[in-house]
């Protein structure tokens, strides 16, 4: 038996609660083509533009002051705070996925294991692109040189996975899933996640990564497996940079 | 089927539904469908146009940037010709973390990266143009997010790009916004 879609509108004709994935109402046979709620689309676009403004402000700050460290810290904190505020405003979308563990311990262990080939794949792709273009590979953690060791851990491994999972898999995927098909919600939220990293070549790695994180969210019904996978990915990138 | 269901939730066929009832089931008013289809048609044309413009401008900017970088390299080579190569590498390494040759390769690589980025963007817009026929709403939302991002990133890297082609930018955003709104409306009417 399929679960009714939490928070979804009832059938406009007979009022019966609509099931997840139903294309027709089981009560009256009315075709169900759910209109994306204006508020869902507006939330997506407002959050996305807010994030873009935060990233752009940080980039402008770095260009003006040449202070990359504080630019990175500002962008990370800004995005995390924005995600938190949007999550509070739309807590109906994130409350349940935050309260649910989703997977068993074995499931979480598999998520950690899966991050190893993912990190190695991303690292190989970045190396390949740089070699093909004859470019010098820049150390992404060079900005934290001279800082205490906890700073890159917090700014790369802890805060971005929390903020981005809350935003892209919690708010955006959750909001779109209320009114779009699973495939459409997967594609839009993953694409938004990939594009917001502001590097077109990284679409090749971040779009599939976004799809994987969406799948974790959808499969488990929880945000935490995605947070763990995202954190493992970022930690892996850090370890490769350090070594 | 679940208890109490009189119709299949996948195909809409009911136990007591006649063929006539099935035919009469299409709930989308034709005018709304026509309007949404027209808006999406316009947005699709814009997607194709933006794809072509991005590709062409990518090659134009590649030619301009390539010429600028080669000129700069010649100037730097001339200015540092009297220096010992090892000393020159040491100075460059201290300033940029790269040797002289690595810095030249890096600059040339950045120009190529810009070309690859524009080709990639063009391919994505072209893919969205094709995909918009099947999934107009999703394609329009993705295109809008991508286009806004490109405008913002370009404006931060080079502020003078913001007013460049401003009319095309406004028209494209308006076409996508209209397509999203029309797609929304079509879905709303279909579900009503």
Description:
- The complex is a heterodimer of chains A (243) and B (192).
- Chain A is mainly α.
- Chain A folds into two domains: 1-34, no CATH class; 38-242, no CATH class.
- Helix content of chain A is 70%, strand content 0%.
- Chain A is globular, with a radius of gyration of 20 Å.
- Chain A starts with 37 loop residues before the first helix and ends with a helix.
- Mean pLDDT of chain A is 83; it is low at 1-7.
- Chain B is mostly helical and 192 residues long.
- Chain B has a domain at 39-70 and 101-186.
- In chain B, 77% of the residues lie in helices and 0% in strands.
- Chain B contains six helices and no strands.
- Chain B has helices spanning 19-23, 30-79, 85-96, 100-131, 136-157, 166-191.
- In chain B, α2 packs antiparallel against α4, α2 packs antiparallel against α6 (166-191) and α4 runs antiparallel to α5 (136-157).
What's the gist of this structure?
Chain A contains eight helices and no strands. Helix content of chain A is 70%, strand content 0%.
């Amino acid at each position: 038996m399929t679960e009714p879609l939490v928070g979804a509108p009832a059938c406009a004709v007979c009022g019966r609660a609509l099931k997840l994935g139903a294309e027709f109402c089981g009560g009256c046979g009315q075709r169900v083509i759910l209109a994306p709620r204006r508020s869902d689309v507006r939330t997506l676009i407002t959050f996305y533009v807010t994030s873009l403004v935060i990233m752009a402000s940080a980039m402008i700050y770095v260009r003006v002051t040449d202070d990359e460290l504080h630019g990175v810290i500002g962008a990370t904190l800004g995005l995390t705070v924005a995600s938190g505020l949007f999550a509070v405003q739309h807590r109906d979308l994130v409350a349940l996925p935050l309260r649910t563990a989703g997977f068993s311990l074995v499931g979480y262990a598999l998520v950690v294991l899966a991050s190893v080939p993912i990190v190695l794949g991303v690292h190989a792709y970045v190396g390949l692109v740089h070699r093909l273009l004859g470019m010098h590979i820049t150390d992404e953690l060079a900005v934290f040189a001279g800082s205490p060791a906890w700073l890159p851990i917090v700014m790369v491994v802890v805060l971005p996975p929390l903020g981005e999972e809350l935003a892209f898999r919690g708010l955006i995927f959750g909001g779109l899933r209320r009114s779009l098909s699973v495939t459409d919600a997967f594609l839009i939220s993953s694409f938004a996640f990939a594009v917001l990293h502001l590097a077109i070549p990284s679409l090749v790695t971040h779009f599939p990564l976004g799809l994987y994180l969406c799948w974790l969210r959808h499969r488990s019904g929880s945000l935490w497996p995605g947070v763990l996978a995202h954190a493992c990915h970022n930690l892996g990138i850090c370890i490769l940079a350090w070594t | 089927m679940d208890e109490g269901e009189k119709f299949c939730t996948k195909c809409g066929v009911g136990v007591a539904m006649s063929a006539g009832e099935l035919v009469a089931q299409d709930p989308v008013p034709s005018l709304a469908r026509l309007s949404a289809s027209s808006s999406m048609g316009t947005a699709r044309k814009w997607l194709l146009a933006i794809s072509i413009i991005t590709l062409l401008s990518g090659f134009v900017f590649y030619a301009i940037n390539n010429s600028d970088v080669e000129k700069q390299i010649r100037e730097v080579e001339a200015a540092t010709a009297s220096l010992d190569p090892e000393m020159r590498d040491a100075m460059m390494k201290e300033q940029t973390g790269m040797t002289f040759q690595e810095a030249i390769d890096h600059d040339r690589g950045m120009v190529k990266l810009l070309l690859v980025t524009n080709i990639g963007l063009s391919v994505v817009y072209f893919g969205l143009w094709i995909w918009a026929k099947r999934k107009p709403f999703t394609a329009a939302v993705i295109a809008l997010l991508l286009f806004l991002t490109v405008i913002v990133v370009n404006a931060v890297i080079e502020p003078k790009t913001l007013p460049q082609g401003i009319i095309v930018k406004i028209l494209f955003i308006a076409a996508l916004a209209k397509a999203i709104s029309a797609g929304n409306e079509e879905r709303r009417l279909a579900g009503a």
